[in-house]
Amino acid sequence: xxxxxxxxxxxxxxxxxxxxxxxxxxxxxxxxxxxxxxxxxxxxxxxxxxxxxxxxxxxxxxxxxxxxxxxxxxxxxxxxxxxxxxxxxxxxxxxxxxxxxxxxxxxxxxxxxxxxxxxxxxxxxxxxxxxxxxxxxxxxxxxxxxxxxxxxxxxxxxxxxxxxxxxxxxxxxxxxxxxxxxxxxxxxxxxxxxxxxx
Length: 198
Description:
This protein is an alpha+beta fold. The protein contains five helices and nine strands.
């Protein structure tokens, strides 16, 4: 079982509190039982779409699965401290640098900018995308805003692909299948803000 202060640990804790079985959670969220098992038991962290769907099915904010504690007032994140207590990399925890196991793709590294903000509906992140990062297209409720801080980003949105360079931004509906990858085989850093309705 995952540690309490991980997405998998919080999901397991919420399911126990609400008496929701894994099967019921899978039916409500549309996320497979096997993926939920991996998140809870193996510490696997998928992209944000399944976590959004699970949080909605449990009636909690996405931040509830990511936070350690919350503040009522404004949350200031100083330069160099982004995500000090709320950083995660999609995929399984690995033994290599940055959580990368031998032969595995790194995935996307998320550093939360407002992890302690109470009752928030937006989730701002600094996201580092490695050249070999792989992910499937995702779809979930809400909207997303991306601003490219460095590098060249390919946004696959529905059947279209757009390339965004440093300083470019995009705002889109998350319900349309989408994913972001490096456009030129080099690392990319973005500011991503995800809004999920209450």
